[in-house]
Amino acid sequence: MSTNTLPAQPLTLGGFLRDRRARLLPTPEAASRRRTPGLRREEVATRANVSVTWYTWLEQGRGGPPSDEVLERLARALELDGAGREFMFLLAQQRPPPLKPRSSVAVTPALQRVLDAMPTSPAIVKTASWDIVAWNAAALAVLADYPALEPSERNLLRRLFHTPRVRKGMPDWETDARYAVASFRIDMARAGDCAEAAALAAELQASSEDFRRLWAENEMRSHWVGIKRIERPGVGAITLEYQALAIDSSPGLSLMVFTPVTGADVEAIGVLMGKRVSA
Q1: Calpha distance 183→223 (Å, rounded)
Q2: Contact of 87 with 11, CB cutoff 8 Å
């Protein structure tokens, strides 16, 4: 039986602004004199420090896409949370907002449980400046003993370009390093004004000829995914599929998972984990 239901219309930026404006409470004095809920356009415009005409155009779908600065002011004026801010940017510019640099990052217990639930896949969590802030047991056995390292040494790029042991254990070091630098360039752009990432890039350009050479190639990789080969004493070569995944609940953090390709690779990881436990 036909219900003659019309397809749902996609939400526009103007519709989103009107909806969020209607959810805000005016002052008690103003509310008592109004027949409709929410703030008036001029009140939102004042909060956002934009002209009433310009704000009206936005609600009407006129005037072109607003800038990042205007969207940030609108997010504050409309008291949007993180999800609302991201949704508004997607509607206005068809892309998420720039990441807000954070002075500290927290790995939640739930995220750590995700890491620990992958017993034979080394997994780590990294920041936009590629500092490693969490890991699982397989990562400690296969990649590095992160708790034994100084915090400044728990950085993927520093280890890649400044630790000879890491380089020696990577048969495809040149390819892996080029891919890493290209991915880091994208992470820097996504992070926006991230002082830590900029400082790391400057540091490595000054201290590593290889990093300086690869950085000058200006390559970019938006998705870090591929095959990585590593060699470890006692087990030989291990082949891993790797992929980096954004963590929506913690902007600026990404999860990197290294999955063994064959049963022999799984066995090799098990041997390394057993050695670590018995050590």
Answers
A1: 7
A2: no
